[in-house]
Structures are given as C-alpha cells and as structure tokens.
Amino acid sequence: MARIKIADFPTRAPKGLSKKEAREIVRKRRQEIADLHHLLIAEGKRSMMVILQGMDGSGKDGGVRSVFGACAPYGLRTHSFKKPTEEEFAHDFLWRVHKQAPKKGELVIFNRSHYEDILIQRVHGWISEEQVKKRMDAINAFEDLLQFDNNTLILKFFLNISHSQQELELNERLDDPTKHWKHNESDWQEREHWDEYMRCYEDVLNWSKLPWHVVPVDQRWYRDYVMTDIVLKAMHDLNMEYPPLERE
Predict the structure, then answer these.
(1) How far apart are CA 76 and CA 153, in angstroms?
(2) What structural domains and CATH numbers belong to the chain?
(3) Looking at the DSSP assignment, which residues form a beta bridge with residue 216?
C-alpha cells in the first residue's frame, strides 16, 4: 500500500459546493446524529469514541460543537488530554487514557488524545524512536481491545489545516477579544516545528491499524460538512434498535 502523504490531501472545499446548502445539510445531519446518539444510549449494547487530532487552530473545539452540539448531555462526554500530571507520569502512558474510555451506551470525544504521547514528545525528542514504535503498537492494541472487547465504534479525525490558515487562526486569538482566552504563546513556538509535526502525523496515519479520516478545515463549514457525513454513516451502519418492552 502506498504511503499516505498529508500534502496530497486538500485543506479547502472543492469548487461547486455551496456554503449555504452545505450548512443546511449539516443542520439536518446534526439532528440525525443526536437521534442516533439517543438510540445508542437506549440500546446500551455498544459505545462510541471519537478522536480529534490536529495542529493548534485546526478547529477541534468547533468541530465538537458543530457535529455533536444537538446531542443530549447525558451519555456524552468530552475529554482533552493535556500535559500529564505527576501521578500520570508515574504510570504507563495509556493508564490515564483507559480510564476515559466510553462505557456501553456512551459517546466519548477525545479533543486531543493518546496520540499526543507520540507526537509532541517525539517532535521534541523526549522519547526515543524505539519508544515511539512501541507506543504505536500499544495504541493499536488498545484500540483493538476497545473495538472487540467492549463493542466500541472508534472514529479518528485528523483536522488538516494549511500552514497559512493556521497563522490566521492564531492571530485571530490575539485580535478578537472573545478569543483571547484561547491564546497560548506556546502555540506559536510549536508552529516553528511544523514540518516535523507533519512528518510525525504522517507516521501516525500510516502506522495506525484503524484508518484515519483526513478532514479539510481551512473553511470550517466544510469541516462540519465532511465530519457530519462520516459520523452519520458510521452510526447508521451500527443498525441499532430500541430495546423491547420488558414485562413481568
């Protein structure tokens, strides 16, 4: 199989797609996703995990709101993996992740995930290449376990933003008072390692047993259009059913 290259994927919508029509389609899909999420809760036989990864400014928070914003708050949880605590550092890197895995009847969204431990740590040389390979093997085994031991649907999204668009997004956090809270000087420092991040992301895409969906995000309306399509189709394919009435 040919190696996946991020540069081969677009970051913008194809010509001919109407922004207005796309947004209307997204609105309808969002409600359908909410209805299927309710069915997931009611059936209680399986779980769902959505993984969002991407560079700073790629729209992970917005993607959560736009795709899952109509879902009921019960049976839905979002977790963001930040720098490990001392307690977490004292355990294997997946210890803190497994605790956040969804139970049956639950949808959990990872806004950044266990992949951070083979991305940022690799880019900065905090772990060896041997550790990177071992951790990738462990991640593949972990995701395989969730799928087949707990009946978990796993959807993985790489939010593909261009280098130029990221600069615009980061500058907006400086210029827009409503986004000042998102500003982090370290985001600019990480941007200096762009090429190395792309190399490491490409390895993640190529080494993963479960496929990734590479989503163009320079235009956020198109991000929503692509993600809602993928999520909705995957949830429909579960063929879920409401449990029958139980009588004594």
Answers:
(1) 14
(2) 18-236 (3.40.50.300)
(3) 160
**Neighbour tally for 206: CB within 10 Å:** 14
| Residue keyed to tokens 């949808």 | 107
Cα–Cα distance measured from residue 28 to residue 46, given in angstroms and rounded to the nearest whole number:
24
E-only strand ranges, the chain: 47-54, 76-79, 107-111, 152-160, 212-216
Return the closest-CA partner of residue 64 out of 107, 128, 14: 107
Q: Which residues pair with 142 in a beta bridge?
A: none
Per-residue pLDDT tens over the stretch 38-67: 999 999 999 999 999 999 999 999 999 999
* Averaged pLDDT, 11-18: 96
Q: Give phi and psi for 130, each to the nearest 5.
A: -65, -40
DSSP string, 64-91: HHHHHTTS-STTEEEE---SPPHHHHTS
How distant, in Å, are the alpha carbons of 26, 29, 97, 143, 245 from that of 10?
A: 20, 23, 31, 27, 48
